[in-house]
Here is the input.
Amino acid sequence: MRRGAMLYEGKAKRVYSTDESGQCIIEFKDDASAFNGIKKGTIADKGIMNNTMSSYLFAMLSAAGVANHFLERIGEREMLVRRVQIIPLEVIVRNIAAGSMSKRLGIPEGKVLASPVVEFSYKDDALGDPLVNEDHIRALGAATDVEVATLRRLALTVNDLLRERFSSVGITLVDFKLEFGRANSMIFLADEISPDTCRFWDTATGEKLDKDRFRRDLGGVEEGYREVLGRLLSGSAQ
Ligand code: UDP
Here is the structure.
């Protein structure tokens, strides 16, 4: 597998073409950003940890029948994936109120929600990824109604699978963000699943083990990421 031209560089990842037209390589960087790029920094070994965790979780989801872009972990920071056309929506699932939901609706952080909440944001940095509903999504032409229903169903399935896996290692899955893509008339889960894109709280102590440590200057950012990865991989081959 030969790495070709860089197709895209984002805040935390670079995407490269390969000599196979249907595949690309994602490289995970140590760079971190928050608040739509206003806060920037680096987290030591984040790229390695996020690649390892995402690869592990995508493989687990594949085994459970959730179609996703992951093909193979090909290096410390690199993952080989199916090339998809990313749907310009962030699909957020929340089990417990936190972050922007707590701010927007005045629900105290930590309140367990009666049932999981699925939200959609329109992926547009210049607009600050605004929250949108199904009517907005249709007006924007971002996805069809059938696709939105599929995204919602897949997001809730992923929530069930991840919640159970993390709860088995004493971690509460508070909320997370997913991205999906289209390829061959199918929808694939894409992007990454890591402490950059999920809120993880230690179930016993409530300690935050995710990017909120970076966003809120809580310290011990690498240690939080390493703790989640270590618990997930303990007892399984890396
Ligand atoms: N999230 C993300 N990327 C974004 C926005 C949110 O990965 O651009 C994740 C975030 O890590 C959290 C969940 O989605 O796990 C919900 O985030 P929220 O809307 O509360 O936004 P935040 O408080 O991070 O601004």
Q: What stands out?
A: The chain has a mean pLDDT of 97.
